[in-house]
Amino acid sequence: MSQQPEADAPTDLTIADLAPGMEAKVISLQAVQEVRRERLLAYGVAPGRTIQVLQRSPATILKVDQTELAIENDVASRITVTEPNRMKRAFHHGQRRRKRRFRRGLKFLQRRKRNKR
Questions:
Q1: pLDDT (tens digit, 9 = 90+) per residue, 77-91?
Q2: Angle, CA 33 vertex, CA 74 and CA 5 arms, to 5°
Q3: Which regions of 4-109 does DSSP assign to beta strands (E)?
Q4: Do the domain assignments include residue 112?
Q5: What pLDDT digit, counting tens, does each position of 1-17 carry?
Q6: C-alpha distances in angstroms, 115 versus 103, 105, 106, 112?
Q7: Which range of residues forms the domain containing residue 109?
Q8: Strand-pair category, 13-14 with 23-28
């Protein structure tokens, strides 16, 4: 008899799973190589810190406090984060656009979770 994962069980989200404009808190950098982990910690990407994804292609660009940092997609897929929060500041002016972008990001994450099952 195979056990199915519970619906309430937390899934491991990574920075690579977040859409541009979403914010989340870093949980761990365990899967990242030691040299890269030290460099990320020096730039402020540490457990408990809030990051915001600005861009996903060709490289992932993060915003940590006032620092914008470009990391490889492979590294972004190894950094685990919490569920995304609503973005504090929009990239485009206007409340409607901000809400629309946030909803699109959430739909993207929901589709991705469904496809992983």
A1: 999 998 886 545 444
A2: 65
A3: 13-14, 23-28, 50-55, 60-64, 67-71, 80-81
A4: yes
A5: 444 444 444 568 899 88
A6: 18, 16, 14, 5
A7: 13-116
A8: unpaired
